[in-house]
Amino acid sequence: MAKKKKSDKVIHNKYVKRLWTIYLIGWGFAFFIFTLISLGGMGFMPSFEELENPKSNLASEIYSADGVILGKYYIENRSNIHYQDIAINTVNALIATEDARFYNHSGVDMKSIYRVIWKNIIGGQRSSGGGSTISQQLAKNLFPRKKNRNFIETSIIKLKEWVTAIKLERNYTKDEIIAMYLNTVDFGSQSFGLKSAAKTYFNKEVDS
């Protein structure tokens, strides 16, 4: 009986060691992949300078001598705004619908990732929503994905967006990320950014 207990304990310890080995290898592999991505070893990654000064196509506005706007020239109908220009209800609505834990994460919301894996992938509930944070969506808007991607390319791009989102969080405040995101969204009808969309659809300024 004692031999059996000793044998069971040996088997138990063996399984525990295997589980810890798999766990540590998994984390080591993840660390290696994210380090490789961050260093640009798996394709383009924005530099610090590009994150500090992201490029965007702004519309050129033509004004009369008395300050009345006469028209615009643009590739994308976009006019940037600052956070203080945005109505608080717009900010609250954005966070409520897109990223409820926006102020509690550092670019990637692991709770949302787990929910997506459990409900969307394992449970097949496609309508349960995605796991991208506002910071990740901003990364996608600033550095658009190429078209006609396969599964592996899409997975690598998602990991790149995670890394970029974390870098954005380190370089900008939460308020600045909100404003940058709302400046980069394509609202349709040649309206890029909140200011153009407010004018196009409601003929109002963003603070209204």
Polypeptide structure, described:
The longest helix is centred in the N-terminal third of the chain and has 37 residues, at 2-38. This protein is mostly helical and 208 residues long. Helix 5 (134-142) packs across helix 6 (151-171) and helix 5 packs across helix 7 (174-184). The termini are far apart. A two-stranded antiparallel ribbon has the order 1-2. It contains 8 helices and 2 strands.
Summarize this entry quickly.
The chain is mainly alpha-helical and 208 residues long. The chain contains eight helices and two strands. The chain is elongated and about 90 Å long.
Binned, the helix content reads 55-70%
Helix and strand content put the structural class at mainly alpha
Q: How would you write the strand order of the largest sheet?
A: 1-2
Shape: elongated
The biggest sheet, with number of strands, parallel, antiparallel or mixed sense and barrel status, is: 2 strands, antiparallel
Average pLDDT, all residues? 80
User: Termini, distance in Å?
Assistant: 79 Å
Low-confidence spans: pLDDT under 50, at least 5 residues? none
Assembly annotation: single chain
Task: Count every beta strand, where a strand is a DSSP E run of 2 or more residues.
Answer: 2
Instruction: Round the Cα radius of gyration to an integer and report it.
Output: 23 Å
Number of continuous helical runs: 8
SSE run: HHEEHHHHHH
